[in-house]
Amino acid sequence: MSRPRPQPVRYGLYSWTxxxxxxxxxxxxxxxxxxxEPLGKVFEKIDEAEDWILLRYDEQQFKVSGELFSELPDKPxxxxxxxxxxxxxxxxxxxxxxxxxxxxxxxxxxxxxFQIVEKKRKIKRVFEPxxxxxx
Length: 135
Known about the structure:
elongated; mainly beta; 10 strands; 5-stranded antiparallel beta sheet; single chain
């Protein structure tokens, strides 16, 4: 028997805030999803089942209602776990190099912005797409 093909990953926003109440989030995921503060973050939609969709953010997965998910028209240039390097570091300083850990959506410019983990530490700076390159 052949297994169904996995769905392609979709990227999008989940515009939930605590004001909406908890019915949009699976009971097993409520606390961690609230801590994540999902507003303005780009999620990977990795599966759909009955009343829930499965979203991934970095290494965490969440079951949520599909009602508040809005798909982005284009895939961001980088995603969670991609190894990237800073382009154009200041003279005398080695470029930051690490894994994508956070993907934020800039509503004004309709572009993704990125945070990276370098040597197990999150860099405070948020990078524009053209400030990074895949390694």
